[in-house]
Amino acid sequence: MVPMTPPGQRPYTAIAVVPTGIGARVGGYAGDALPFVRALASVVDCAIAHPNVLNGAMLSWPLDNVLYVEGYGLDRFAAGDWALRPVHRNTIALVLDRAIEPALQLRQRQAADAARATWGLRLLPEAIVTDEPLGVELRRSPSGASWGTIAQPASLLRAADRAIQAGASAIAVVARFPDEGDGDHAAAEAYRQGKGVDPIAGAEAVISHLIVREFAIPCAHAPALAPWDPSETVDPRAAAEELGHTFLPCVLAGLGRAPQFVMNRDRREPGDLTASAVDAIVVPADACGGGAVLSLPATTERIVVTGNATQMNVPPEALGLAATPVRSYLEAIGAIAVHRAGLDLHTFQHSLHPLH
Fold first, then answer.
1. Domain range holding 39?
2. φ/ψ (deg, to 5) at 67
């Protein structure tokens, strides 16, 4: 149950960020950061997180006070350029890569039909297929993080524009990704065993960033892949991606009530959320170089989790950021509760230095 804000205090808002494709120990797999977000949602009035934190392939756990915000849009929000407008319902367009084989494309449409029938989501009546294959290619940076490119970005943007013209207020994209055997088999197997970086996550972010940057509309991506052979060594954190023929359900669940972006300051309404309302952000301690962490006001409490190791090496000290270090996400929940209560975290230490 979400705690009630005492009279005279503003609602408490916190952001959860785990950058995509950097091999985070928590949040680098298929929905393994969801338990933290569920706990966070129970101690704040409003939580904001991006698809990499909230997506769980075939699994999801929508929460009324959690806003599903694409990463590029989250950065613009944190910078104060955009506001977030909560909605009761979106109309979702399903955009499919022309490169997806007919049988695999059918699975995506069936997943969308299942979301309509079981969750009551509103989708456009026809899926939109890109006019050219998107040509997704996967890459790996020297640091070990994953990223990627698409050969036909203009085709993706044309499909998104068609979706918006047809009445969509959110876009779910499914692109055909290289299968495990077509790329780095060792990297894919390491990820499945909980030892490596998600090889496709970085490329997924490129796709959603492109649409959000161009159209300022909620968007998230799910890859189309041939099913993997069963394996006895799959790590529980990656197991959600072993369950079916598509990763689309979590994307549709998130987009169903994803907030709209408000770019024009003159069009903002009283219920819109701005960066000045954010009280805290939680991020891995060595991944503080993202736009959201850097752009939020100095008054925002930055809580960095030292136990969530990643492939990055960007601690807050290197950027001159004041931050509160905690060892785990369990401690992060405690730090949020203390901050929300208006207390000094230092008073919970074993000893206090006397005033001079």
1. 13-86+262-342
2. -100, 130
Query: What are the tens digits of pLDDT across the range 22-71?
Result: 888 998 888 889 999 999 999 999 999 999 999 988 888 878 999 999 99
Beta strands, E only, the chain: 13-16, 46-49, 66-68, 83-85, 91-96, 122-123, 128-129, 136-140, 146-150, 170-176, 219-224, 260-262, 280-284, 301-305, 324-326
Flag whether 2 is in a domain.
no
Based on the fold, state whether residues 178 and 34 are members of the same structural domain.
no
Indicate which CATH number applies to the domain containing 330: 3.40.50
pLDDT band with cut points at 50, 70 and 90 for residue 17: very high
pTM, entire model = 0.90
Domain count across the chain: 2
**Structural domain includes residue 347:** no
Q: DSSP string covering 168-209, please?
A: -SEEEEEEEPPPGGGS-HHHHHHHHTTSS--TTHHHHHHHHH
Secondary structure of 4-39 in the HEC alphabet? CCCCCCCCCEEEECCCCCCCCCCCCCCCCCHHHHHH
Buried-exposed string 100-114: b where 16+ CB fall within 10 A, e elsewhere: beeebbebbbebbee
Identify the residue whose tokens are 């934190």.
Answer: 53
Residue 349 within any structural domain of the chain:
no
- Rounded CA gap, 317 and 329, in Å? 20
Residues 124 and 246 in one domain: yes
Choose the final residue of a domain: 235, 259, 283.
259
